[in-house]
Structure formats: C-alpha cells, structure tokens
Amino acid sequence: MLRRVRKLQIAVIGYNKDRCTDIASNAAYEVGREIARASAVLICGGLGGVMESACRGAKENGGITIGIIPQEEFSYANQHCDVVVCTGIGYARDFIVASSADGIIAVGGGVGTLIEMGVAYMTKKTIVAMAGSGGVADMYGGKFLDERYLVPITIAKDAKTAVQVILAANKSVKSQSGA
Amino acid sequence: MLRRVRKLQIAVIGYNKDRCTDIASNAAYEVGREIARASAVLICGGLGGVMESACRGAKENGGITIGIIPQEEFSYANQHCDVVVCTGIGYARDFIVASSADGIIAVGGGVGTLIEMGVAYMTKKTIVAMAGSGGVADMYGGKFLDERYLVPITIAKDAKTAVQVILAANKSVKSQSGA
Amino acid sequence: MLRRVRKLQIAVIGYNKDRCTDIASNAAYEVGREIARASAVLICGGLGGVMESACRGAKENGGITIGIIPQEEFSYANQHCDVVVCTGIGYARDFIVASSADGIIAVGGGVGTLIEMGVAYMTKKTIVAMAGSGGVADMYGGKFLDERYLVPITIAKDAKTAVQVILAANKSVKSQSGA
Amino acid sequence: MLRRVRKLQIAVIGYNKDRCTDIASNAAYEVGREIARASAVLICGGLGGVMESACRGAKENGGITIGIIPQEEFSYANQHCDVVVCTGIGYARDFIVASSADGIIAVGGGVGTLIEMGVAYMTKKTIVAMAGSGGVADMYGGKFLDERYLVPITIAKDAKTAVQVILAANKSVKSQSGA
C-alpha cells in the first residue's frame, strides 16, 4: 500500500540578523521548539536572525530543519540547518520558502517577510503572525492582504498556539512519527 | 566616448484579466500612453488586464513594450508586447518585473501586485499608485510597507503625474530619443 | 563550540518516468541505498523514474530524501520524499538540485540531466556517471564538458563506488550519525 | 484584426569576457549585425565578451538589443543593451535567455553556453554553432545533445548563414518592419 512519508512542513519567516530583536529571537526559538514537538519539519530561509533562532529551537528539541538560502554556496546557511537548499536565485527564493510550506508563521520581519506572506496568501495557505513580535507580523496581523479576503493573517499569542493553528488546518497531511 | 543606450524602464503592474475593471483598464491605457510619450520603455508581466491595456496604450503612441511572462512559451503573452521574455519560473517572475524597472506604477491589483511593490520597496525604487484604481493601489497608496519607512507609495491623481514622479526621481537615467 | 549539523548531500539525477529503463531504475535504487548507508542526505528532482527509485532505495534503508520539484504544489512529488521543496520555477530548478549537492551521481538521463551535470561542472563539484546506465551518463561519462577541463565526469562501475568517490572528495564535510 | 507586433527573437550565446578570443568577438559582432539586418531582436545574457560584441554589432546596424542579466542591478549590463532585464536569479537566468529565443546562435563558449544550448534543445528550438569560433560551439557543433536526437546543433560557416537558418525555421513568426 502506497503511503506518503512526508511530514507536515511549517515555515518560519521574519527578521534577518540585522534587525532581529531579543523578543523576536526568543519567540522564534519557541516556534522552532513547538514545530519539533509537533513532529513537523521546519522550513526557513536558512540565514540569521529569526531563521537561525527557530532552527536552534527545533534542533535542541529533536526536530528537522531545512534552510532554503538565496546563495549558491552552503557556507551562507546558519549552523542549525540539517539540510541546506542552495537556490542561487537571490531573494526570489522567498517564493520557494512559502511554496514549500503547509503553513507559515511570521515573527517580526520587514518587507521580505511581507512578500513571503503574500506568496502564501496567493495560494491560500494558513498564515500566522506572532503577537508582539514586531515588524510586519504586528503590522499585518489580523488583516487580509488584498480585497479578495482570501485568507486572514491569524494572530497567535504564543508559539504553541501558532503551531496548533497550522496543524488544525492541515489535518489531511498527517504528521507521522515513523517516517 | 562610452554612452549608454538604455532608456528609462517603467513597470506597470496591477489587475490581471480576471479582475480588471473598466476604470483600471482605462487608467492602465493612459499610463502606457504617458510612458510612450516620455520615451521610456514599458516593462510589464506580459499577460492580460492592466498589463495588456498598458501595452496597448504604449503601442498606439509609438512606445516600446516588454512582457516578462511566467510561462516558457511566447504564446501566453498579450499581442501588444514588442519583446517577450519567457521566464518559465512562474510567479517568481514578479521579482524580475520589479527588479527590471527604474520605477513602478500600480493600477489596482491583488496580492501579486503587492509582492511586486514589495520587491521595489526592498530596493528603494520609486513606487506610484494610481488613485481610485482600486485593489492594492488604493489599499497601500500613501503608506510605507514596513516599519523601516524606506520609500513611500506615492499616490498619483492621473497617468501623466505618475510618470512624472518616476522621471523626476531618475534624472540620472536619461531618456534618449536617439537610442 | 559551534558545530555544524549538516550531513553530506548527494544528488541523484537521471531519466524521468517516461524514459526510465529497468537497468537505470535498479541502478538508481542501489545508489539511493548506498547514500543512506553512508548516512548522507539524498537530494533529487523529486519526480518519477530515477528520482523515485533512488528515493525508494534510500527510504528502505533508513535514509533521508529531499525532492526539489519544478511545480509549486506538493502533490507532484513522488511518495518517497521526506521533504518536498516546491520551487515553482519550472525546469530552472535543475540549477537548485545541482547547487544543493556536495556531489552528484547520474543514472542514464536526457538533456535535463546534462544540464544538471553542467551546473555541477561549472562549480567544480564531483560528478559521477553510472556505467551502463544509458543516456547522457554513458554519453558523457569519462569526458570533460568544456575545453577548460574543470572536473572530469568520473565513471563508476557500481553504486557503492559512486558514493565512495563523492565521500572521498568531501572529507571536510563530515557525515555525522548524531545529527 | 488582431496582429502581433513581436519580431523574431534570436539569442546570441558564448564566451564571457574572461575567455573571449578576437575570433569569437569578431564573429559575435557579425552575428549581431546580421540579426539587426534581418530586423530581428537580439537577446543575450547582457554581460561582456560575446554578449557585448554581438550587442555592439546590432546597435551599430540599427538593431534592438535585450540583455537578460544574472544580477538585480542595471549597472552590470554592457553599454549596448537597449533594454536590460535584471533577473536577480544568478546563472539560472540561462534558462530565461534560451526560453526567450526563437532560435539561438553559439559563438565559442564554456559550459554555461552548453547549458543554454541544452535548454533550447529540450524545447526543440533551432540551435546554430559558429564554425571555428572555439569552445562548446566547435565541441558540440554537428552533434545531438542526447540519445533522443531531438534537434541537431547546426554548424554555420558565417554569420549571415547562421541567421538565415533561424529565419527559415521560423517562417511563421514574421519579422515585421512596422512593429
């Protein structure tokens, strides 16, 4: 019997290294931890800031981390990525991060994070913004990105809730402990 | 003496065929016409709706039109593109449309248009939204896309003004009649 | 002390479903198995034919498999991918498959496989062709792709040797059982 | 009656600045000139070497030149491009150059040129190699790139013949003086 091995893939997006605050870094760590506890795979842009903190949170809790980086050399990825996908396509890799997720969680972030939310919105994926994490997560949390009202950007009070929102929306993609 | 032949490149972005209104279509036509009159090159996503109306406006006024399409076959482009760039990279081509512009003008539009504004914002290009054209042009016109306040989305009352805003911001890239 | 968790990433490229032979499919399965036994991560294009057989070989031997697909929806991937990267950029994803590998192994294949070998060649990665697997693996095995003689396409008689060639060339990227 | 304005688009590919010979540069200039004389649009990778010489040949003979560059800033393009498409996707832009051509002409070149020929081959476009121009043009001229024998790489003795081969294969895409 054919049986898919793929686990649920959750993307964490947000501030890069330059602008990451302690609040956002801590929130990202907790989101990474909760993704690991839910036996989902953490997808991210593979660089510093929120991406690195989330990867660390996942790795320190037995999770799996995938970094999809803009560059074509492995060395740009943070040290907590299990697998590095070197796209070489620059910031257009934002499309790939969002397309490769069953749901995404924003922690702070600038316009690059907004673009990733936009790609997820376009394909009606579940988008969660961490309350109080700053940046576009707080700017756009609770809103719709265009007049079509396709999917709301759901505000989550804590990391566990954020992950639960995505799990609930993706019950058909089972998270499998045996994969 | 080395002398660049490149003219100013202005992107027109907005509603695709499915959601384009008469108001947006007319505004796009006028923007295309004004780009042609300014001897600039019109860059767009090459498909229907705002893209097609803008190309028609430029072509009926002696302009040059470039369509940068998601597909890898020419046949998807609208009939008013002088040159078709077949990217084959899907909607990630939004990055290329915005990167290939000295400034961009939004006419209505959904989240794809927001993404293109986001890419332009990230690289601090001049972004103009046509007043009253609907969609994200009206939703985000007059605002900044993130907390860094990099560049405002300037609201323009008419097509001529929209093009003038971009010309004024790019005086170093001369529009050359002899190119 | 900072310590990288990333394991060695080996790409398997070759015939897609339409043209895959039994010989190539079996060879791909064995290559997948040997990658798993070496505790490396299998990278591939995520679709059918050689990609699917290699993933199956890895999964049935405790390995980890990453499918980097041209499409933006998960459903196109074969059922043996642990993680699916939905690029949405069409066949330009060949660049990403090759860039995301520490070394690549070709099993048969048409011009798409040649393109992936070309990308790996450009960045001087180790390229191995499975002897007798048909297609471009046999056409270009033992040769250099251009007049610069950057890296040879090494011919391997069996799957174990193919993987050993890549392990030997990447001793600095340790394969870590504890990751 | 709907009437397409698009002219025939011919790509010139080959050596970049680092490895370009005088022979290849002269051949590229002549190819650019003949493309202009045929009222076709010259498509290229927009950088130096063969790309620059071909653009110069076209511009000095009244042609139109499009440079599709890997970078996201205009300044990397050579000075003879009428329009610059800033892809920002690195060398994956080779796919776009080939996809955006009705036919391609190779003048010398390394593995990047081979990749572009591969993309054109995959979609059965007319591929011409300039005889005696060195590099992959001479290495693969007269051959098929894989065992499917999809399209041959036609050898041309001079620039005029090279362009004629592509014109003959694309009679349905009319080159229009009035566009």
Annotate the secondary structure layout.
4 copies of one chain form a homotetramer.
Chain A: E1 9-14, H1 22-37, E2 41-44, H2 50-59, E3 64-69, E4 83-86, H3 93-99, E5 103-107, H4 111-122, E6 126-130, H5 135-140, E7 153-156, H6 159-169
Parallel strand pairs in A: 1-2, 1-5, 2-3, 3-4, 5-6, 6-7
Textual characterization of the structure:
The structure is a homotetramer of 179-residue chains. With 179 residues, chain A is α/β, with parallel strands linked by helices. Helix content of chain A is 35%, strand content 19%. Chain A is built from six helices and seven strands. The first copy, chain A, has a seven-stranded parallel β-sheet with strand order 4-3-2-1-5-6-7, sandwiched between helices. In chain A, strand 1, helix 1 and strand 2 form a beta-alpha-beta unit. The B-C interface holds B 72, 88-92 and C 72, 88-92.
